[in-house]
Amino acid sequence: MYRLLACIALILATVTAMDRVLASALGDLLLRSSDRFMTVYRPFEAEAQPAIGPGTNPGAQPGAKPGIKPPAGQEEQPNALLVKAALTTQPRPANGPATGPAAKPASGPADVLVLGNSRADNHFPVSALQDMTCGRALNLGMGGAPTVLSALLWDDYVERHGAPRLLVLEPTGLVDNPHDLADLPLLAYYSPRIDAFVRQENQELWMANHAFNLMTFNNNQTMRLIAGLVKPAADRTLVGAIPDPMKAQLAAAPEEMMTADAANWQALDHIIASAQAQGTRVAVVITPYFPTYAGKLKNFDAFFADLKGRLPAGVTVIDARRAVDKDELFMDALHVNEDGVRAMFAAMEPDLRPLGSCPVDAMASLSGTGNTTH
User: Quick check: 346 and 130 in contact, CB under 8 A?
Assistant: First the structure.
């Protein structure tokens, strides 16, 4: 009997040791992935970042798409790339208040950070955002992520790298279930903060992952991280147009209400307060909805009016809900496609560009030609 128990104990010890060794090796390997979330947990090497200057795409992942082009019919207007070509390589001097975009250099991998759910993920390609703001961008939008998860990612980023100059926050994660974990569990391997949240929300999952560490990597996100080891990650804009059957389904759908849980509101307040306390400019950017679907939301305008009323002073609100209205520019009810992103950025440019760190002298020189940039 003792010999049997000893054999069982030896087997368990061997399995546990192998699990820990293999999980550690896999975790270290995935940390080298070009996936954007690994940027948060990987040590930042400042010397590896390219300088901001004409013809560069600062902070972009290798293999990312080039700067976004203007929508059809605007080819003769100077776009973000033409503006960038006119810029000097010198950063804007910090002549303004401490909360200005150039008041302090970003100490981490991003000057501009994007947070939100899939609408943030798919609507803010870093190539376009960098061209418009003249700074390195990192998109931490996560599909299905409620605002409480965005707050965890924000805290992890700031803790490791310091605050960015500009935070772009797509706020519709407010309506997502605050108990959904989305793709967060894998990141618990790298973050004690996220690990504690997983334990709070799903005790069984947390226990399984701690009993066998390899279980933490048993998800689709691991495959995306592995793909990021083989091929550098690019922008995540969507390709394709909303199909007719989906349009008919949306037209026949009943009306519904937009609601947000108190936990998401509290998380939004925390993110904004934390950012402003550290001198980060905050832009709350509401991206487009498919018009038919927006028409089914009974409190569509009232919900966002309430959101705007809750925001503290100093937050820039860019309401682009109706900036795109053509069916062919949408992928589904909640997401515009690649052409829709171009149209959205063209519409937002007058409000978004001033929040960046483009040199004032270059912008003044360009505007003096009599042309516009949108």
Answer: no
